[in-house]
Amino acid sequence: MDVEAACPVAPKPKKRKNSSKPTLQEIALRFISREGNAGSCSIDENSGCSYTQVTCDVGNFVRHFRTQHPNAARKHGLMSEKDTGARKPRAIAKRLIAIDRRLLLESLTKLVCYHNLPLSCVEWEGLKQLMDPIASALDVTLNRGKNKMIIHAIANRVRAALGKEMKNILLSLKVDSASRFHRHILGINVQYVLDGKIVIRTLGMVEIKERQTAAFLKEKILDVIQSYGMSIEQIFSVTVDNGLTPKIWEFIEHYVQAFEPLDICTKKLQERHVSLSDFYIAWLMTINSVRNMFSNPFAQKLTKALTDRLVKLKSSQAFQMALFVDPRLNFLNSKLFNEDEKLHIQTCIKDTWNRIRRLKPSPSEMSANNSSNSNSQFDDFVTELYGGTLSKTANDATDSSFVQQLKALEAEPRQDHTFDVFKHWVKRRESHPELFEVAMVVVATPSNQISVERSFSALALILTSHRVGLGQDALEDILIIKLNRDIFEKEAELIDWDDLVSNVNS
Question: Where does the record place the region Disordered (predicted)?
């Protein structure tokens, strides 16, 4: 028996080929700046590369070094053997395309503000490979910092356009707040009539870091209003979320029959714009539906609760004015208001008309401003010679006509509940010019702050879990552009993009 054959010899451990030579991963780690799990490129400090990974993957970094820093990668031994030799650059055929700074920067702005890409998207390897040749040809520097500055400049243009659009008109303010990733945002909208249409504009999506007291929020809202060159005199109404969860409705929570009319009403009130008188009509329809549930044991109490709430709504000055100019509710022999209430509402409407007149120059004042002072000087000369004062019969006649038209509203024929009050007053623009202007303010007064809540949906698309570090100013700039898209589209036609780039670079 062969003893040697009976005693197996343990195999020798395999040695790593070129064990003294470091692996690619070991080399790559020397050029990765680590901060926790994150890593950033540091293979070529002079390149300004900002490539970063939230969770460091060395293999991806090796690929990045080879494709974006081939010379440095070759120098430090990160190239594979087949890549170490001199490689002839690939010849790319030139193409003639039409592009300018506006098209480039407008597209990048839309990527960030419309399509919710991060500011650093211009540093993504794929986009960078596509955009860099274009940016180089247009002499534009693209990086996260420049992108942020360009968007800030454009957002300021949108703000300026909004300020110009809102100048000298009465506005309805809508305010709400929301939280996302422990960041508290105050949303501020305005609503008014522009060129015969009700428009909603976003004035601010302001991050709040202090305690949200009433005084502090009031100060913040006033700061936003004043930043647009608006005065408190321009605010006609303020709509806020009162967190309406009346206890008196809790006991009907599980009773579908009684709650269904309220559900229908709630969905109606969530439309983009519901005027105060439409709100009132919808509420009346709900009351009518509930009170006709004769066999429902909760109908009587629920009807009383809805009616009591309607009485409180009717006590609001803005609500009273809206109902007064609505021929569905205020008509010949209507019992909606008593005589004292009518006098009070008419006074409020007159005050509103006076506010409108104070905010914008009258036609006579505009004519006087456009003409020379010779007429007024001559009038002063005649006064000096013969005494007396100039007549103001034109203004008196306007005031008299306005009062007559206001009182005539009580004699209007009644209209059915589907009647379009907005179109009704648009048709009276020429025949009732003063009342038309007041009516446009009143019918544009919102009954809810739904548009602000929808702004927070846009916030959720921008402030994602991967972008919680987005700065306060950059966040608001992006949202101002995103939520006022039509203003941006107009301003894009007017912006001097070369001048904008020069200002950003300076």
Answer: 1-22
